[in-house]
Amino acid sequence: MKKFKKLLYTLIALTLVASLFTGCSGDSGDTQWFLDKRISLAEKYGTLPAEGQVGSLNYSILEKDSYSCRKSQAGYYVDMLEEPGSPYFIVITLGSKEDADVEIVDLGMDGSTLQILIAKKASSDKSDSKSSPCCVLKLDSMPDDIVIHDKNGASYKLIED
């Protein structure tokens, strides 16, 4: 019986040590997606500034009502004005009309890849707008690549026309 208890305690101790190194916990299993602390602007400033610089790109997050999104699928697309030197608008949409809002909560540059973290939240606006929930990031130039995730880890891909 002593050997059994010793073996049991050893297994429990190894399990606890392994969970410390792998990040496992005994919570409900909910996961949260975060940008690496080395590139996170929200980590650097405590919260994501509405405008500033990420890597060598100047950015600003547009107000919710300043842009209308009518794409019917979830993902993102790039929009521009038809004039020389126009900024780029990265439009991230939830796709279907639903009672939700979406906001950009973090940005970071990983090499030449712009990483964007978004969060969905319950909408306070119950309008009959035909617009899909979306958020818009204005950039002065385009990065080589864009990766977008929500806080649950779902990825948002480029919407092809």
Feature tags:
single chain, alpha+beta, 161 residues, 35% strand, 2 helices, four-stranded mixed sheet, five-stranded antiparallel sheet
At a glance:
The protein is α+β, with helices and mostly antiparallel strands and 161 residues long. The protein has helices at residues 2-22, 41-45; strands spanning 51-54, 57-61, 75-80, 88-93, 100-110, 113-122, 134-139, 145-150, 155-156.
Report what the structure shows:
A 5-stranded antiparallel β-sheet has the order 1-2-7-4-3, with no helix packed on it. The protein has a 4-stranded mixed β-sheet with strand order 5-6-8-9. The chain has 161 residues and is α+β, with helices and mostly antiparallel strands. The protein has helices at residues 2-22, 41-45; strands spanning 51-54, 57-61, 75-80, 88-93, 100-110, 113-122, 134-139, 145-150, 155-156. The longest helix has 21 residues, at 2-22. The chain is globular, with a radius of gyration of 21 Å. The chain starts with a helix and ends in a 5-residue tail after the last strand.
